[in-house]
Design a protein that fits this description.
The structure is a single chain. The chain has four helices and ten strands, in the order αββββββββββααα. It is an alpha+beta fold and 225 residues long. It has one domain. The strands form two sheets. A six-stranded antiparallel beta barrel has the order 2-4-9-7-6-10.
Length: 225
């Protein structure tokens, strides 16, 4: 994956304390609400990431197995390159439906000991034709840096929408940024942004965070919509 030279200068800052809401305290409790690198289901922490389970609307269903691979389709949504899944979605209704994939959705690897979970960083929408099966390549960012990226043999499910305080704030900071491949005529420009965002995600999921100055410097390099 291609990295910007400017980002190398920020590498040391990735191990500094994340200054998001992790340092806020509730009442007289001296314990931080959340710490980067110590979030359930992320990094090397066990368990399923916390959040409300994502439920498909009535009349919409996943058909078959969600595999870690690009679909044989031009319908590609999301951003990120380490956790890419192919999902077939059937719309049994008599009219077209727009399915909203929420920001923060966790793509759960069924073999979590070996494969990475993914997180959808921006809300995305999928148009499902009436009484049709739509195959979609859904891209997301890895939240377990030491595990394997998605591959065809890996099986996934649609999990919860993360309620991590740190991830939710990062999602909010990125919601108006250009992150999808379709927004970059030059593919290498997309790879640069993709790499930067993945490092931001890892700073929360796997590492000790980064300070506000480093965060702002990275965000400034990502174009707005």
């Amino acid at each position: 994956m291609k990295m910007k030279q400017s980002f190398v200068l920020l590498t040391a800052a990735l191990l500094m304390a994340f200054t998001f809401n992790a340092c806020k305290k509730k009442g007289g409790d001296n314990k931080p609400t959340e710490q980067p690198g110590k979030i359930r289901g992320m990094g090397e922490n066990t368990g399923t990431p916390d959040g409300e389970q994502f439920v498909l609307p009535t009349g919409i269903s996943v058909v078959g197995t969600i595999k870690g691979d690009d679909c044989d389709t031009v319908y590609q949504v999301g951003s990120g390159s380490l956790v890419e899944v192919c999902v077939a979605i059937f719309n049994s209704k008599q009219e077209d439906v727009t399915l909203v994939i929420p920001a923060g959705l966790i793509i759960l690897a069924t073999n979590a000991q070996e494969y990475q979970h993914g997180i959808v960083i921006q809300e995305t929408r999928i148009t499902l034709k009436a009484n049709k099966l739509t195959r979609v390549s859904l891209d997301s960012y890895c939240i377990n840096a030491t595990k394997h990226a998605s591959r065809e043999s890996a099986i996934y499910t649609l999990g919860p929408v993360s309620n991590s305080v740190l991830m939710r704030e990062l999602i909010n900071l990125l919601k108006n940024k250009k992150l999808e491949q379709s927004e970059y005529p030059v593919y290498n420009d997309y790879l640069d942004v993709n790499s930067d965002v993945q490092d931001l995600v890892w700073s929360i999921s796997d590492h000790d965070g980064l300070d506000r100055a480093a965060l702002n410097a990275i965000l400034a390099t990502i174009p707005n919509r």
